[in-house]
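User
Take a look at the entry that follows and flag anything odd:
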Amino acid sequence: MKKTVEWPADRVERRAVAELGPYARNSRTHSPAQVDQIAASIREWGWTTPVLVDEDGTIIAGHGRVMAAQKLALPEVPVMVARGWTEAQRRAYVIADNKLALNAGWDDAALKIELAELQGLDFDIGLTGFD
């Protein structure tokens, strides 16, 4: 029988926000306005994406979400632990998690229709990140 590879997403647990530390060399920045947007998203939909941390609790992915959790005074957040990753894997994923998402595009026509219909439903479009 073939062994299944274990992924961080296989186990989500809650950890105290105070136990999580930022990666000191994180090159991604989060403005106060963006942290406010993330906090508003959490208020609207709850916590939808766990923070990825290493075995010591250093944040690999989710710095902005943790900043929003602090702003909302949340005592704990869902996390996934990247167990057994090398230092190079952890450091590279800090970059890849952000850059790979930026490499996606938009279908402008479909987006325009979707945003217009959401406005018709009296939904706060600002929660999507668009204004």
Remarks:
- The chain is about 40% helix and 15% strand.
- Helices lie at 32-45, 63-71, 87-102, 108-120.
